[in-house]
Amino acid sequence: MKKLRRRTEGESLERLSPQWRARLQEWLWLGLFVLGLVALNALQFSRTTRLTPSFLLPREILAHLMILGTLITAVYYYSRIRMPAIWQRLRWTLFTVGVILTVALLDKIIGVFSVAYQISSLSYAVPAAFGAASMGLFFGAGAGFMTNIVVSVLVSLGAPLAPVDFLMAFGGGLIGLFSVLRLSKIADLAFGGVGIGLMNIALYLAGTTLEKASIDLWAVLWAGLGGLVSALLTLAAIPIAEWATQRTSPLGLVQLLNPSHPLLAMLREKAPGTYHHSCNVADLGESAAQAIGADPLLTKVGGYFHDIGKIERPEFFMENQRDGINPHDELVPNMSKMILATHIKKGLELGREFGLNEDILQFILEHHGTSVIRYFYVKALQSGNKDCVISMDDYRYDSQPPQARETAIIMLADSVEAASRTADNGARLESLVEEAIRDRLNDGQLSQAPLTMADIEKIKLAFCETLHAMKHTRAEAYPKLEPKRPSWWTRTV
Ligand SMILES: [Fe+2]
Ligand SMILES: [Fe+2]
Prior knowledge:
Elements: H1 2-15, H2 18-49, H3 58-82, H4 85-88, H5 90-116, H6 129-156, H7 162-181, H8 186-210, H9 217-245, H10 250-256, H11 262-270, H12 272-292, H13 296-305, H14 333-353, H15 358-366, H16 374-383, H17 405-420, H18 426-442, H19 453-470, H20 488-492
Helix pairs in contact: 2-3, 2-5, 3-6, 5-6, 6-7, 6-9, 7-8, 8-9, 11-12, 12-13, 12-17, 12-19, 13-15, 13-17, 14-15, 14-16, 17-18, 18-19
The chain binds fe (ii) ion (2 copies).
């Protein structure tokens, strides 16, 4: 009987559409999240007041549930519409929840310490800006701002001077967020830490004045220190956050641009033609990403690494062939296609071996999408048996089309760079760019990328400008200067 009932329950869940099942799971997670936060607050209350039974009062729990439940529900709906990225993968959702819980936990630990050692001002040292800075660093300004609101409410809940706590956490978080959005070196984060500290102090002084409370110099010190700790925590958490999200921070991206990176050094040594092509693709991608407001740094790094799979068997790729020796001359078209297509698989293997995150591996996986290796398809058509049907699909890359704007840009830059090699003048260059992009569009390779037609026009213009700059003409011969001779030279000679 029990078995029968269980099966019926299972079947009713099965009957739900996958979309609704995913929604239910999300709600379950959110419910657990809210309950966890309430439990944390209740625990701190019991430890700080040393009145264990009071936190069990239904009124207390209900109040926390109402505030946190409303806040998290609002943030959930807002983020689903405006920031779908953090809901795309479970690891990104868990990272967001983890960041918020870390700040909440630190707040509670500091709260307990401040009571245990009777240092009431210690609660101003809570590194609340860590939440906004970490989220801003990996998911952009919107996610950072949203986290800042949640964290500011959390740290001020139940505090004796709640408005001051809220103001400090919110203002400090904004400075933390601004400092990571322009992050390119560690010094930026150090300045950010000083900025958060100063903002905390200013808001503490302003808040206590308005609340007509007395100013505690120790609180000023702790508030300043809280800012520095926020910046330090953000810096220390970068490697963990990169591992958890599989996204590369701007600091990590700058490191990957270094030409002495082992993979780039290997590519330069074993496949110099591909290395040169990758540098050009990176420059084209960077300018196009700037033009449409995508991430130029990520796109540039993606351009450098997209063809690292060609490190193995570089002589099979045209840009590395010298002295007219082409190993494909000895092979049937199908075999040539297979060898060319393996550079995706090999690239992914090498990328994983050298610790590249998934956001960079996406460029390797998606830069050809499922496009046709046209040269060998045509060769197969020309050389094949007329009775044997040759399918175009057999000559496609077995991969996936670009899912992001940045990977779509690199796909286009890759085909444009290859096509532009045959251009001998500006007008021809523009028509080749147009043709290469149209081919990808017509083949449906951009159907899953969030690009508009206006974006594609901007990308086209950016490519043409960059290619003109790359192929600018030089004076054929520089004028020679006569060597300067001493005045006695003409007299004696
Ligand atoms: Fe490639
Ligand atoms: Fe390429």
